[in-house]
Amino acid sequence: MESLSQLFYLHGIGYEYTKYNGEHVVFSNDTRSAALSCCGVDVTDQAQIDHLNILLDANKWLQLVPSCSLVCAEQPAVKVRVDKRKLAQQCTISFACVDLPSVTHSLAELECSGDYVFNEITYLELIFPLPTLPIGYLDASVQVADKKQQTQLWVTPKHCYQVGEQKQSGLSIQLYSLKNKAELGVGDFADLLTLVQQSAQHKLDYILLNPLHLLFCQQPERASPYSPNSRALLNPLYLAIDLCTDSKNNLELDHYLQSSTATEFKQRIQGLQYIDYSAVNQFKYAAFKLLYQNFKSHGSEQRKQHFSDFCQLHEATLATLKVNDTEFANYLQWQAHMQLKQCQTSARARGMSIGLINDLAVGCAGDGSEFLNQQSLFTDSAYVGAPPDPWAEQGQNWGLPALNPIKLSDNNFSYYKALIRANMENVGGLRIDHVMAIRRLWWCFENQQQPDGCYVYYPFEYLLAILTIESHLNQCIVIGEDLGVVPPEVKTALADKAIFSNGLFYFEKDFHGEFLTAQSFPAQSLLMVANHDVPPFFGWWQGFDLTLKHEYQLLDEQQLGQLQTERKIEKQRLLRFLSSCETHSFSLDSPAEDVYQAVTLGLAHAPARLFTIQLDDLDEQILPVNIPGTDQEYPNWRRVLSHSSERILARHSALLSAINSIRTN
């Protein structure tokens, strides 16, 4: 049992945690064994257990350096591990592809930072100083006597990339929900481009997007951007046909867009409150094929070379696509990348300090391209979820396959590097959903009889280093969505790396349940009233989210009554928050518009450097885009805005001006 416990630890299988109610929970051996089994370990095979313990523990001391070595850019040094009997030897480090001479030090002169005894031999960990190195990943070789080993030096800056110290304001949107000018039923990059132009006029600094990940074109009703086909690829439905060069002088496309098919399609979707993804997908993909055919037939040699260059640059990512017509799919990715880049370029050219902020989902679907292409890195029958909480006493299983923390390091973490790099491309910021995942994730087990689970820990230092390095290489700020129970070491590490935390006003309360004052939100944070997982403010204030759940039979009469009573208490707490912000008096019967404006102006005074206004709230939406815990019950990820972005922002011009004045003074 002792050797199995050691393997639990070395494999990152958690031992205990503190439940939301303060209860100390110790995971059973059966639960921990289930987690290990999902990683391909036979927990009844003692020989395999002993072998893995040596491989994951002692073996790393028998190597001069690991395959990846973390190096602090400010004080560059690499840790070298040697047999104590070799201290009389010299160590030489040579760099590949960098114009730097090799460095040699006597082992006896190096500072010792740790030791390990194996088979009665003592091994020492020595700190080897390095010259100043460029931020990024550098291949190097380490040699002591006749022993030589390769390593990749991860030269990591102290902080993630930053954009000044001033306070900034922006919008959060669900791109698909924008009123589509082309009347094709789903918000697209042309609508985003218009919103960028409008936002810049109102002196906003950024637009926070929903995940733009590739979904399932063969199953268009699988609409959740948080359960995607692939997180490294873009959703072609966001392509704006008119922005494509191949829409010009395209007679076949013109005929299609003016045909009876187009007329019937537009009539079918006209005025819909929820997106009909099947209809939109069928119509737009037919148009996409006409764009592609025009490119094949009439595209200039220069454009075809640009396409070839794109495919070569993104070869590894594009290779993960599981489609019949690879070149057509690659073409759509090329067009999507260009249109996203056009939006970001326009944002920066118009003075927006950050521009677009992308959103990275915590996982991918178990039948999608990302999973199928990287299946060896994932577990067998373990899924990401959440531990028990007041709203789900049995815990939550999100149905997203869990990554194996040991396999994740394969090929110098190339999978995670590529994922982060892809999501930082052509944007000025990246929000990471459920950022705690770089430290630990709650695993649920498909074959477990009882509704059980446990925390599994990931190589935190390495994943954090990748975020920090890629942030600088792509000049992209990083925001970690840290709502819920967050381990203290994660909060400390995120703050040390200047990664923005994500404050949500609804959830930020003191020990008495009162809303925190605006001054309570730290500078290194993104503050917002609401996000996609909670009701829009107007729906919340009017209690419409509760009656909606009752309407969809998610609450019975007794639960509805109890929650309505609790909501009245919450609204009274909100009024007390407002009384601390200004002299105006409000009551429980005050119009939602007046209360929302007061809340927004009050929070604008917060020290938080990023203050985000939800476009849904400016549009006075009462319907949510998502009700967590539902799938088929409510039409999640489909609700569209009622007005165009131009009209919404024009109507709230005075409010946006007041926010800008508060934030810049």
UniProtKB/TrEMBL annotation:
Pfam families on file: Glyco_hydro_77
Molecular function as annotated in GO: 4-alpha-glucanotransferase activity
Entry EC no(s): 2.4.1.25
InterPro entries reported in the protein's UniProt record: GH, Glyco_hydro_77
Keyword Transferase assigned: yes
SUPFAM superfamilies: (Trans)glycosidases
Reaction equation(s) it catalyzes: Transfers a segment of a (1->4)-alpha-D-glucan to a new position in an acceptor, which may be glucose or a (1->4)-alpha-D-glucan
Keywords: Carbohydrate metabolism, Glycosyltransferase, Transferase
EC category name: transferase
Highest taxon, organism lineage: Bacteria
Family listed: Belongs to the disproportionating enzyme family.
Name by which UniProt lists this protein: 4-alpha-glucanotransferase
Organism: Pseudoalteromonas prydzensis
